[in-house]
Design brief:
By secondary structure, the protein is an alpha+beta fold. 21% of the residues lie in helices and 31% in strands. Belongs to the peptidase S58 family.
């Protein structure tokens, strides 16, 4: 998508990574927090009531709250490019960030600002990679049922272009406590009892079984939706709300007190479209991105 550059750094050894998204000047963004345990940085600037109209980048990271420090690497890179909100003492890049918890996957080490800086240098408009990369490197799913095995999550991507050239692209770092389901409601990845049998997190809860201490595991789904249609922050917040329907279509249970789910919505273009159309489209693209994130999911031992 023109006006959007994407870069990822992944450490398979540490079991974590960072994804950066860089925008052309004049891009606007908003977000909707739908989980109860978010790890975030600079979200206040996305509120429609606040005065900063534009943003320069977005960071999705592993490492829990420690991963938020990676945003400094993006700010350093953008400062070198002269990008940011002008002030009497130089530019201040506006870079919101959100992180998921993957510290228990391999090593309890978060992505660094140097790695985020590297991701910026390697970012490109034609980067369409997905899988166990970037923020999805150490993601796991299906952590609700005792004694069931987890499966790997990842960073998924999906896009759609309307006949008039309006585009919507979604990225989803899927690290949920629940299972991922397809459009027909079938579990495609999640808590496993055996190689051929899913435990079914939703069924487990509805059977009357008690909850476990889920804060000991890694949860949270981070989603970023981009469009080349022009919207202000108020409209983008409304689209973000609508797009969270896609998360609920693909993950069950979702938006729990153990998840820090959040959805960003960014406008990087000048085309015309209604927020109703883009919100409806975004919900389906988000669902597809989540399923894409686990298309090569494997049991985590």
């Amino acid at each position: 998508m023109q006006g959007l550059k994407i870069g990822h750094v992944s450490s398979q050894e540490k079991g974590t990574g960072v994804s950066v998204f860089l925008f052309d000047p004049g891009s606007a963004g908003a977000c909707w927090v739908c989980g109860s345990a978010p790890a975030t940085h600079e979200l206040a600037v996305l509120d429609p009531e606040n005065s900063v109209p534009h943003l320069d980048g977005l960071v999705l990271s592993g490492g829990s709250a420690y991963g938020l420090y990676a945003a400094k690497g993006v700010m350093t890179y953008l400062t070198e490019q002269g990008r940011g909100c002008p002030t009497p003492h130089g530019v201040v890049p506006i870079v919101p960030a959100a992180a998921l918890y993957d510290l228990d996957y391999k090593k309890a080490i978060a992505p660094t600002e140097e790695e985020a800086y590297q991701a910026c240098r390697e970012a490109s408009e034609d980067n369409m990679a997905s899988g166990r990369i970037g923020a999805g490197t150490g993601a796991t799913i299906g952590k609700l049922v005792p004694d069931a095995k987890h499966m790997s999550g990842g960073l998924g991507r999906a896009e759609m272009t309307l006949p008039d050239g309006v585009q919507v692209v979604a990225y989803a770092a899927v690290n949920c406590v629940g299972d991922v389901r397809d459009k027909a409601g079938r579990i495609v990845a999640g808590a496993r009892l055996t190689q051929d049998e899913f435990a079914d997190c939703e069924k487990y809860l509805l059977s009357g079984e008690g909850e476990r201490d889920l804060f000991q595991h890694s949860n949270t789904t981070l989603v970023a939706v981009f469009t080349n249609a022009k919207f202000d922050k108020s409209e983008l917040k409304r689209i973000a709300k609508m797009a969270t329907a896609g998360i609920a279509r693909a993950i069950a249970p979702i938006f729990t007190r153990f998840d820090g789910d959040i959805l960003f919505c960014i406008s990087v273009g000048e085309r015309m479209a209604s927020d109703l159309t883009i919100g409806t489209l975004a919900a389906e693209i988000v669902r597809l991105a989540i399923v894409d994130a686990v298309k090569h999911s494997e049991t985590v031992t």
